[in-house]
Amino acid sequence: MATTHNLGFPRIGDKRQLKFTLEAYWQGNIDLSALQSTAQQLRLENLQRQSQLDWLTVADFSLYDHVLDTSFLLGNIPPRFNKGEGISPLDNYFRVARGRSTDDTPPAVAAEMTKWFNTNYHYIVPEFHKATQFNLHPDPLLSQIEEANADNKSIKPVILGPVTYLWLGKSKDDSERLDLLQRLLPVYGELLTTLADKGIEWIQIDEPILVTELSPAWQYALRTCYYQLQGGPLKLLLTSYFGQLRENLQLACELPVAGLHIDTSQSRAEVNQVIDWLPKHKILSLGIIDGRNIWKSDLNELLDWLEPIHCRLYDRLWLAPSCSLLHVPIELESEDQLDPEIRSWLSFANQKLDELSTIATALNHGRKAVATALDENASAILGRKQSLRVHKSDVHKRLTEITASMAQRQSPYSIRSQRQTDRFQLPLFPTTTIGSFPQTNTIRQCRRDYRNGKITSAEYDSTMQQEIVYCIRQQEKIGLDILVHGEAERNDMVEYFGEQLDGFTFTRFGWVQSYGSRCVKPPIIFGDIERTRNMTLDWTGYAQSLTDKPVKGMLTGPVTMLNWSFVRDDQPYANTCLQLALVLRDEVLALEEAGIHIIQIDEAALREGLPLRPSEWQSYLDWAVQAFKISANGVQDSTQIHTHMCYSEFNDIIEAIASMDADVITIETSRSNMELLDAFKAFEYPNQIGPGVYDIHTPNIPCTDSILTLMQQALKYIPPERLWLNPDCGLKTRQWQEVIPALENMQQAARTLRECYFSNSAKTGPSPG
User: Rounded distance, CA 579 to CA 246, Å?
Assistant: First the structure.
């Protein structure tokens, strides 16, 4: 009999209950018991949603991030957060994530945050030192297990594996992370014993690094780890996901664990080999339902493939989604306003579990037992393939007309920069922001009322214009050099554009977690993409009419729009990205023609689209960089193109970034103390750079001295004539009372730097503070 289980479920709730409860707690509007009550209710609801499965996954819930949970489970808290007395463990947990200080706790820089493999989820990076010690703190984990045990179900806790945990972290003193393994393994051994004492039979232990290109040292670490943990009281289900095992396949099959999970959602090439190599006493779990996209699985085709495998493995076959369902929305049934035809093609977390159960029932009891469900699925799959809404001949024709010259600027950067200097006459260390300003309750309510038909188009426009006026006036008062209109009209940096393009559709409740309480609602690209009208010109043009200072046009780049959407899976991603590049090129040229001569095309997600294996990077970067350049490079030399990138390690892709040839690149570097700029110095990056001088993901307001300190660091890497000052990301999630003093301090830092450099003709570097 095939056994069903799940690797993880979304934490946020179908109406983002966790988000709103967390934010209320952080703002002091509710107490700890109210937060815990909501968290418990969400966990119980998640267990109920999984009740059709043979094994229920527990301990996949987190109040902020599962990697941060692991750090606290293992007692690995950054030393700077051990100084506050009287602060609760939970509040200290949030301090590590957010960096917030209170009246009775010292300020501390939040832990670094970066992308979880190649997904849109962010995790809190563990910090290691040569002297790092580990000790077990299992109470939060055990409480979730006790809570789930109340229903007397078969439960399977999930934990992050020790080798992946070390791999995900960062050494703060250049010590070797793997040197800590022998200190870490006894704590994991203690944890397994503790869980066994609680009656646990199986534990899911995630080692997703098995799908990456591991050095011999990391491969050896995996072997060492599981040979030392073998013989314990629990059955270990070793879990990999996000790709194929390839050169790690033999290693994965040989590790002394009770079961192995592999991701088959994108490729089934390894399954037969794994079956042949996996010892006969081990369980094989196949991730058959794509846990990262929202398209229905072809259940009949899956059964054609699985039935012979089931005959070979029988009771040894477990079935699951490919990875945690954290990366997809929860419930499709709530989307009653979604186009019915498109809706019939989709599957969210709850529906994916239904698909899983249907497959298992068909394998265990025959297809006739689920004939109706299989027939309905076949009809939806065929309908999508034949839909005339998906393919447009004009779009495909335009793709064939792309030429190499469309991706090239008229002149090299050295010539363009002089023409831009002549046009803009900017001071040394020019200041700007990344684009968005606070999304106030007034703004959100106005958009909501307009969407629900409670106000007219004229009333909506009037409110948005008032917000733009306020935003422009605040920036002028602060003294910023390059202004933005604030993006009051934008609900999301991808959804806003997708709503104005053919080939996109949108959900009302299709939220997924990005980090902590931050949720996004990815658009769905279901067909060929066309632009039928201007998307940003009216708002940007209005803002420019209010001021003599330059106003940046703000666009989201084609690669980011692709990577932050649920993308159609019936054609190569590169083709869809080029379609996006062409519609954005049209918008860029419209802005330039209307007199907007600084245009920012955000590629915040360029790096996160990289395949997990470096050997596959170049193919991706070739088409990704081409798409950006096609979108940007139709403009005149005197038009300045900016781009922005989030949370990226740039060393290994610096050549690709340079080949994008943006005039100015702004990047998030504040949490890394400008260390990310080392890549630009080593490469001798020729264009201008705006390193983020303060972290917008925390409510802390940076002081002028802290910004100057970061700029002193930046000046070690980048000459002053090529440095900008800016926050490290957009400001939409912050409040005006936080934003204004932060930007005033940033502007004061710029003035201090200018005074210092004007009085120092040698320009050897400032020494303020």
Answer: 32
Phi, psi of 726 (to 5 degrees): -160, 155
Asked if residue 125 lies in contact with residue 168, where contact means CB atoms within 8 angstroms, the answer is yes
Of 638, 478, 486, residue with least CA distance to 552: 486
Q: Position 8: which residue type? A: G
- 66 among known catalytic residues: no
Kindly report, residue by residue over 10-23, the tens digit of the pLDDT.
999 999 999 999 99
Angle 327-331-332 from CA coordinates, rounded to 5°: 105
* pTM for this predicted structure: 0.89
List pLDDT tens digits, range 638-688: 999 999 987 566 778 888 999 999 999 998 776 666 667 777 777 888 899
Nearest Cα to Cα of residue 97 among 518, 605, 724: 518
Task: Print the SS3 string covering 56-110.
Answer: EEECCCCCCCHHHHHHHHCCCCCHHHCCCCCCCHHHHHHHHHHCCCCCCCCCCCC
Q: Tens digit of pLDDT for each residue in 151-207?
A: 667 999 999 999 999 999 999 999 999 999 999 999 999 999 999 999 999 999 999
Which amino acid is located at 257 in the chain?
A: V
User: pLDDT tens for residues 107-118?
Assistant: 678 899 988 999
Q: Which of 261, 310, 644, 697 is catalytic?
A: 697
Give per-residue burial for 211-222: e unless 16+ CB within 10 Å, then b. Answer: bbebeeebbebb
Residues 490 and 484: their CA atoms lie apart, in Å, by: 13
684: tokens are 């001798």
Residue in 642, 480, 561, 565 with CA at minimum distance from that of residue 293: 565
DSSP state of 326: G
Residues 262/274, Cβ–Cβ less than 8 Å = yes
